[in-house]
Each structure stands twice: as structure tokens, then as C-alpha cells.
Design goal:
218 residues, mainly beta, Pnp Oxidase, Chain A, Thrombin, subunit H, six-stranded antiparallel beta barrel, 13 strands, elongated
């Protein structure tokens, strides 16, 4: 069987990035498992990994061509989900699953307000670390910020889901350093940087007003 033999719709696009964490449900398997997007051939297939902790020997008979699969994931504050089918599995040298490109994708926006694109330097402080970063988008409820590993850092910022963080930054037109308290709600990592989705839970009115006056993203 060759992947190239499949003929799929040529018009669909999916909002996702390499390394995105996935929740996977396969028909006939009694439990869900976490996976990661490894690769994608637009309008043909997605490649996801089967984690080493998966009891593969007891469920591999369910990884057959045409078996139904449901995939859910969080991307930029929106939960996406789709139903598709398996078209191939490879278990040597790596455990990989090839999933047919979805025909329909459902989405649910978790944000009460759309984020505004921006580029503000920020210091991200946890209980044990402080790193420089950049806020990439923001609204009065939260933000997305990125911290890159520098030559002086042995590792990326260490942080967990629901951990509280301090964000320290200085907005133009507001005097002095501003401090916002938040909680980490999403994490994406690669070798060079970590991207955090942060929900604010303490923010001053002057900052909220400044955010409201920022030009909206087009």
C-alpha cells in the first residue's frame, strides 16, 4: 500500500502546528491516549506518533486501514476536533500512525474575546525561574508569550499547566513596570523555545484600558 495512491479533496486546510499535542480515540480501543503531530501532507494525511507507553501489542489489531479515529486538540485558544480513519501504521523503527486528512473539522473557541496581535518584551517569572520573552497576542483575559533558549540557558523555562506566573512588562504610554498575575493554560515546546497560553487573574484597570485601545488584528 502506498500513501500516494489516496485521492483526497484538494480544498481543505487545517489549523495546526508540528508538535501540537493531540487526544486520540480509536474505535474499538477502550481508552484515549495522547499523541503529537509529527508531519502533514496537506489534503492527504497527517502523521502522528504512538507513545512508547501505549500497550501496543494488545491493541495493534485495531490499527487497521479504515478503522475510525477521533482527534481533538487545542490551538490558539480554540478546541478543534475531527473524525477520520487510519490509512497506515508503522511500528519500526518508530511507532507512527498515518491518518486520512479530515473532511470536516469542528471547532470551539474558548476565548471570550479575540486576541490582538502585538510584540511586547516581557519577563516571565515562576516560583523558581525568570526568563525574558515576548508577548505575541493579548486581550484583557490572557495572552500568548514565547521564551527562547539563549546561550546562557541550560534548558527552557520549566513550567506546568495551571502553574501561576508573574508577567512583568512596560507598555508604551504607561509609566513604570506593569505586573500581571496569570495561570498557564497551554504549553508548546520545541528545542529552541517554549510558547505559553496564559489566562490573567489579576490585572489593573489601566492595563485593561490600554489593551482595549490597541489596534485590532486584521
Amino acid at each position: 500500500m502506498k500513501i500516494e495512491d489516496f485521492d483526497f479533496n484538494k480544498e481543505r486546510r487545517i489549523s495546526i502546528e508540528f508538535g501540537t499535542q493531540l487526544q486520540v480515540e480509536i474505535d474499538g480501543v477502550s481508552f484515549n491516549f495522547k499523541s503529537t503531530l509529527i508531519g502533514i501532507e496537506p489534503n492527504k494525511y497527517l502523521i502522528i506518533n504512538a507513545p512508547v507507553t501505549l500497550p501496543y501489542s494488545s491493541i495493534k489489531h485495531k490499527f487497521f486501514r479504515g478503522n475510525k479515529i477521533i482527534v481533538r486538540y487545542l490551538y490558539k485558544g480554540t478546541v478543534f476536533g475531527f473524525q477520520s480513519e487510519l490509512i497506515e501504521d508503522i511500528y519500526r523503527p518508530l511507532r507512527l500512525l498515518f491518518v486520512k486528512y479530515p473532511e470536516m473539522i469542528e471547532e470551539h473557541n474558548l476565548r471570550s474575546q479575540e486576541r490582538i496581535d502585538c510584540f511586547f518584551p516581557v519577563k516571565i517569572k515562576t516560583k523558581s525561574q525568570e526568563r525574558d520573552g515576548v508577548i505575541l497576542d493579548i486581550n484583557k483575559g490572557g495572552c500568548c508569550c514565547v521564551s527562547e533558549k539563549t546561550v546562557n540557558d541550560e534548558e527552557l523555562l520549566s513550567v506546568q499547566i495551571d502553574e501561576e506566573v508573574d508577567l512583568r512588562f512596560q507598555f508604551p504610554q504607561i509609566e513604570g513596570e506593569q505586573v500581571v498575575l496569570g495561570k498557564v493554560k497551554s504549553i508548546r515546546r520545541d528545542k529552541k523555545q517554549i510558547t505559553l497560553g496564559i489566562m490573567f487573574h489579576e490585572i489593573e484597570d489601566i492595563i485593561i484600558q490600554y489593551i482595549k485601545e490597541l489596534p485590532k488584528s486584521k
